[in-house]
Each structure stands twice: as C-alpha cells, then as structure tokens.
Amino acid sequence: MSEYDVVVIGGGAAGLSAALVLSRAGRKVMVVDSGAPRNAPAAHMHGFLSRDGMPPREFLALGREEVRGYGGEVLDGVVLDLVPDGTSGFWVLLSGQGSVGGRRISARRVLVATGLRDELPDVEGLAELWAKDVLHCPYCHGYEVRDRPLGVLGNSPDSVRYVQLIRQWAKDVVLFIPPGLLTVQQRMELTARAIGIVEGTVRRLVTQDGHLSGVEMADGALVPRGALFVPPRFVPNNTLLSGLGCEMDDAGWVVLDGTGQASVRGVYVAGNLANPRAQVITAASEGSVAAAAINADLVEEDIRESVRSFNLGY
C-alpha cells in the first residue's frame, strides 16, 4: 500500500494546480486522473492569461510535467471509492481496470476535483457539434464566433438573460424558445435590442461540410445560423463525495467551508465539482487556494504529532 500526504482525484486545471502547490511545499502528492477532461471536445481554451488559445490537452500535459518536476506523481486510473482509515486519513481505492487495478493508496488528505458533466438537450445533431459550432460559454468562445448569425437554444424564462449576453458578440441573434414562456416585458427587451424570437420546437441541427448551417423547427422552417449557444444542465461528478456522506445542497452540489473543505473533515473540493461556472483559470485558482488550506491543515497535524512524540520521549 502506498502512502501519501495528499491524493488529488482529477487531473484537470483545479487538480493539477493544487498538486503543483503541494509538491512545491514538499508534500508527497499523487494525482489520479481518468483521462476524460470535460473540455476534451474543444480545440482551444481561452481566457487564461498567457495560455489563451492553447489546446486543452496540451495545457494538461504541461501541467502534468510541472507537477512531476517537483516530485509529484500522476497516475492514469479511476478512483472507485474513498474510505476513512479510522484516523484522520483515507484509503483511496482504484478500480479493477488497467495495470493499477485494485491498488489501494493511503492519503492523509484528499482533494476531489472530478468536475461535472454536461447534459445536453435531446436535439438531433446537437451532440456532434458540441464544442465546435454548438457552444455554452460566451466568454470562452464568443470571440471566435463573433459577428456570425448566432442562435440561443432556450428552455426557460431565464434564457432571456442569457441571449441578451450573447447579443454582445453579434448583431444577428435569434432566441429559440418554447411557446408561452416569454413575458410582455421580456419580448419588449428582446425587440429593443433586435434579437429575433422563434417560438416552437427545434427538430434538428442542419450542417454543411461538417459545420452548422441552420436550425430546423418541427414545422419545417429552417433558420440559418452559424453557431448556436446552448445552456446545458450541469451534473456534478459527486459519487465519491456522496459515498463519504458529504453534505450536499438541494441541487446536489457539495457544501464547502471557506477553505474548500467539505463537511467530512480532511476532504477538500475544487473546480467545477463545486463551482459549475468556473472557467479553466478560475478552477486553477480554486485548486491553488485549496492546496494552501490542505497544507496548513497538515502542518497543524504535524505539530500535534510532534508534541505528542516529544512528550512521549520519542
């Protein structure tokens, strides 16, 4: 059984940033990553100072290299379960797949950064264009599709605020929304900013040469569009946390204190697993903050153990 100060579960921006800080602090750190980042379909990431436009996998590869450069370890694998070890630490149990199958790792603290998954509307052709011409975050990709004919696939009155935001990147914007959801005030606000309104059911997305060319409605009408923004449903990958009994809010998001620690002592969380709106740069920052809190927590434990050993004459 391997023993570590900290096991980081999830090797995205949050997890690698935390591992970097902890490794530089002289902690023995292991990152366990499944190799399936949420932003894998995207060709480039944006809004990260000095890394704008970098392919996500290149960014993660550089992060792994930096962590390893300070003595941190990165393991390709899947964590099956977290089990309290009866003291203040945990056993990290890996799944039975691959060369590390069934391995058990001892960790004084764990940082869970497993992110979230996007549940997309069930519209023909949408998933195939996800992160290409079908997008979610305007701050991540709005500049790249600026001045195209844009659409927003809405499903609630809140979609009005979202489409008003998208309007900042283009003059030709259309909101696709089911009938009966818009108020008179919302219609006036949309009209005032020249945002088109198409009420009905979207049947499918139409492509040409592999790119979005239009949105086809259930009545057969075709609305030409160059890109479509779709707010997905965010679902946290919180199985490990719920298995430990960590407190969740009514929507299923983990409850944290000001340091990133969950209700189960010794368990910390960073990135999209707790903050669905965190961009890559935000997640990296949260990982760094959590790492500092973890190290401070370990220092307190080190002090207690040193005093105990001193009093016992060890």
Automatic annotation (TrEMBL):
Pfam families tied to this protein: Pyr_redox_2
The entry's keywords:
Flavoprotein, Oxidoreductase
Which InterPro entries does the record cross-reference, listed alphabetically? FAD/NAD-bd_sf (IPR036188), FAD/NAD-binding_dom (IPR023753), Ferredoxin-NADP_redctase_2 (IPR050097)
Task: Give the source's domain of life in one word.
Answer: Bacteria
Q: Which intervals hold domain FAD/NAD(P)-binding? A: 4-286
The GO terms this record gives for MF are: thioredoxin-disulfide reductase (NADPH) activity
Catalytic activity, as annotated: [thioredoxin]-dithiol + NADP(+) = [thioredoxin]-disulfide + NADPH + H(+)
- What name appears for this protein in its UniProt entry? Thioredoxin reductase
